[in-house]
Design brief:
By secondary structure, the chain is α/β, with parallel strands linked by helices. Helix content is 45%, strand content 19%. It is globular.
Length: 311
């Protein structure tokens, strides 16, 4: 049974699926295969053996041979599922520092989106995709989809069971967050999904630093007005794409409220900008993003403000 494909409406044409053979990475790749099929994209299946482990840990040549064998088996499993659901693939096995190899490959072949688990294998025999996830988010300008769990079996049936009906985008009005809103709206348009936009007033902003020459109540109202402006802008972007958007404003710790709201609306995917209003430059990501991608159960699509045009 084939999955219905959106014909002639491409958002991403090439998607990189990074695997280390772990349950976490394969669960993320199930989502990557579904998205590739739904958008008509080519799936670039890549596995990297970290040969530098020999310099850092007591790993011998036999262990590296076993890793290479496991790497090829992980690729073969993904290719088998991709073939059954009709996704075109390009397979590549690489040696070297995983983050650098994946970034170089993505740049060389002009990858539109990267997909990987937010945690990789543990112990000595690991390909360390978990530690690579944040590196990719920091250093690439392409969107990155990470997923931490729960486990998802790598089968055609698992791929066919996925559907993104509800997309949550967390926004604070920064350039990066606005890029996230544009991406969420474009993705919802392609997938016939609805969008929920969440703005969180950080409670620490008005509980730890007294506002100069104004009451707490006045300061709170100002923060709420700023939030309303941000959500109104998100609504205008959604209107441009012809998708339904629901706005929500909350007060609390941002990452906690984002995780909670993801569960409340039963979101299928969370979209976030990589850097917020703190003024972080390229090469750094917001602490909210770093904590959120490890805590939420749904895939997290992170977007950089350096993407020049919306999908």
């Amino acid at each position: 049974m084939a999955i219905a494909v959106e014909t002639n409406r491409y958002m991403y044409e090439s998607v990189l699926l990074a695997t280390d053979g772990s349950e976490t990475s394969e669960g993320a790749c199930v989502h990557g295969l579904w998205l590739s099929h739904r958008l008509g994209a080519t799936a670039h299946i890549v596995s990297v053996v970290d040969t530098g482990l020999r310099d850092r840990l007591p790993v011998g040549a036999g262990t590296l041979r076993a890793q290479r064998s496991a790497s090829h088996k992980a690729i073969d499993r993904l290719v088998s599922v991709a073939e059954e659901i009709g996704v075109k693939t390009v397979e590549t096995a690489l040696d070297g520092p995983p983050g650098e190899q994946l970034l170089e490959y993505a740049d060389d072949v002009s990858i539109d989106c990267l997909v990987l688990g937010s945690r990789g294998r543990g112990a000595l025999i690991q390909y360390v995709l978990g530690s690579v996830a944040l590196q990719l988010i920091r250093e690439t300008t392409s969107p990155v989809i990470t997923r931490s769990g729960p486990p998802l079996e790598l089968t055609p049936q698992s791929v066919r069971s996925i559907d993104y009906e509800t997309i949550l985008v967390a926004t604070d009005g920064s350039e990066s967050a606005q890029a996230g809103v544009r991406t969420a709206a474009a993705l919802a348009e392609k997938l016939d999904a609805t969008v929920h936009a969440l703005y969180v007033i950080n409670e620490l902003a008005y509980t730890t630093h007294p506002p100069p020459n104004r009451s707490w109540k006045t300061y709170r109202r100002r923060l709420e007005r700023e939030g309303r402006t941000v959500l109104d802008h998100a609504q205008s972007i959604a209107d441009t794409h012809g998708v339904v958007l629901t706005e929500t404003m909350k007060v609390g710790i941002p990452e906690a409220e984002i995780e909670s709201h993801t569960r409340e609306i039963d979101a299928d995917c969370l979209v976030m900008g990589t850097r917020g209003l703190s003024g972080l430059k390229r090469g750094a990501i917001g602490s909210v993003v770093a904590r959120t991608i490890r805590s939420v159960a749904v895939p997290v699509l992170t977007v950089s403000e350096e993407i020049e045009s919306s999908p």
